Amino acid sequence: MLTLATTSPGEPEIFASLQGEGASLGRPSTFVRLSRCNLACHWCDTAYTWRFEGDNRPHKDALAFDRHANQLTLSENEVATRIRALSPDRLVITGGEPLLQGAALARLVALLPGMHVEIETNGTVAPHPALDHQVHQYNVSPKLSHSGNPADLALIPERLAAWAADPRAFFKFVVAGESDVSEVLALQQTYAIPGDRLFLMAEGRSPAELHARNRWLGDICLRHGLRFTDRLHIHLYGDTRGT
Q: Which candidate, 39, 64, 72, 192, has a CA 20 to 30 Å from the CA of 167?
């Protein structure tokens, strides 16, 4: 069984869209958004996947979501059926933190032969052995200090080293200010992350926020030989579920 986020009560967040970020930006994709996360970024734009009523982890919106309206459980067969009803053959599994449900994901992906599988992860959880060999690409987004997560929870040395050594793993760091870039460069040096697999992305939930930060962030990427990524889905659809 898989625990999923919802677009509306009782409706799982399984949808077709363009990938909005990172190495596959602009590619038609089928998305599955899972619920639950082991971290708590105070700027998280999918807090409805983890900040349920009774969860006091900080978030800048200070919203608490009803678990029953924002989370549901479906069998791997049901999720696979819904995925096959959509046309894109690139599957992006996102969250929340998808790798918390690694064993169930392995069973799901086995039902979808021929699909290109990407998993979006915060980088703290090792892939389940039964899942790992079925994944074509990992989109790893380690959380910097401005996320509000303690470094001992968010930046686990053995996991960062493992991702850096895996050519399937593309790093995407969310950046709000220039001090965040210094933190990224230190991590790049420590773990020998290749620049062609390291993206900087501005933190922002509106086109105006992104535009203001993208102007200087692009210059930084050029200066340090890193890759820049926008948030295409925000420009196209806004900060909405199922997009």
A: 39
